[in-house]
Amino acid sequence: MPVLRQITTCREPATVVVECRSRRRGRPLEYRLETCARHRWLADHWGGRRGVPGERGGRCGTVLDFRSFDAVVRSHVEEWIRPLTAEGPEDHGGDVAAALRAAHDMLWDAAVVSQTRPHEDAVRAALDQAARAAEAAQAGALDDEAGRAQVLMALSVAETLDALGRGA
Asked: What integer is the mean pLDDT of 117-134?
């Protein structure tokens, strides 16, 4: 099942599409990113075939992500959380809960040192929710599927809130 991500709050129709397909047999779609002309720079770090949307083109900033849970989380960490936190959380040996908790704590520590804007508080709260869902799943309080869904939803909300705060 695809994960819907929104990496901008722009309401313009998409004019640029990046589609990445797997190298596996049948080459299934891994993700599809859509941006408008003003935000096309966001696609610079997304690999894949570039084109224009068809008749049913979407809204700027929309990502349909068909990759595995681990790949989507890794994408969030590498493409969004690390740049957001300047140095980014360590890998933590694949422990998603630990990596998300570290990212939250890094943002919290940065907020203590400097004054933050309201959207940054919201981003931290959403990252905290993602970390808590991952921790609950690890502890057995949530089944794996529910825990993963909650982690991905909280990460998507955090990413969108950050885009809103940056004016993207």
From this structure: 83
